[in-house]
Amino acid sequence: MSVADAASPLLEIRGLEKHFSLSGDFLEQLQFQGGRLVRRQEYVHAINGVDLEIQRGEALCVVGESGCGKSTVARTVMGLLRPSAGEIRYQGQRIDDLSTQALLPYRRRMQMIFQNPYASLNPRMTIQQTLEEPIRLHHPDWNRQAVEEKVQEVMTSVGIASDWGTRYGHEFSGGQRQRIAIARALAVDPEFIVADEPISALDVSIQAQVLNLLMEARHERQLTYLFITHDLAVVEHFGTRVAVMYLGRVCEIADTATLFSRPRHPYTQALMSAIPRLEDDRPQHIRLEGEVPTPVHLPAGCVFHGRCAHADERCRREIPSLIATDDGSRVACHAVEEGRLD
Prior knowledge:
The protein is α/β, with parallel strands linked by helices. The protein folds into 2 domains: 3-239, 3-Layer(aba) Sandwich (Rossmann fold), CATH 3.40.50; 251-342, no CATH class. It is built from 13 helices and 14 strands. The chain has helices at residues 3-7, 26-29, 70-77, 100-109, 127-138, 144-157, 174-186, 204-221, 232-238, 256-261, 266-273, 313-317, 334-338; strands at 11-21, 30-33, 36-39, 43-54, 59-63, 85-90, 93-94, 110-113, 192-196, 224-228, 241-246, 249-255, 323-324, 330-331. The protein has an 8-stranded mixed β-sheet with strand order 8-9-10-5-11-12-14-13, sandwiched between helices. Strands 4-1-6-7 form a 4-stranded antiparallel β-sheet, with helices on one face. It is globular, with a radius of gyration of 22 Å. The two termini are 41 Å apart.
């Protein structure tokens, strides 16, 4: 790997948008209004101009409340959803417009761990078959012995007993299934992994084990993570950088330590104040007023202005851009830009 490759982002997202139609097919969109036949279309605006860069070797955590677009970003990056607008580049190569066949070499380098381990394993396949499938797909020239040796190696690396191979997914607990899902992702030796809330469906006693397994894999295999979560305690423990999303937009990006010590965006400050802590000097809880706007009818200007105590006329009219601050974070907030909010 050259010096230039090491310095450039592994993954770049520019102006990413994803809209889902609510209007059905063409005939369902036709309606009579005022005696005229008109076509009416409505969309869920799940992602609205997301810009992100992920450096090689880091764990970028994307956080935000349910419905903010975190998982849609993950699935769009992996090619499971086609973006409505914007670009996704992997090592400088645009990949969002590639055909299924052209995308195949990137499938080996980019793997995904899904949220629900009870739904992500094929119930008709044994664990051995589940782990062999991606290896055979990406290495069709390997003989049976090489495939089986690779399966044994990856099973051992995630703490899976060799006798699990003949059993089926329904025979295992949630934590065991997620270990199998991690093994499947690691089986083709990827360099980039998207983890979509991989521990949220697990018991709290098991979450730490799976999280530590992901951290060990990152250090041993030099992995890069895009980690989707709503658990800020996980972010503080796992992430190197954090991107905070609200209603399909990124409102703040910062190093983990910086974000937790000095959140800048009003929404980030409200999130941080909600973390249960035992310290006497913990920040006072910020109670947000109003309701989360619908992603079908997005508000003009800053999407957070209806719940923000610092909003003014500019916030209601103009969409803020991510600007660099003195501590290295980037914040999309007019109040921060103008010095009205520290």
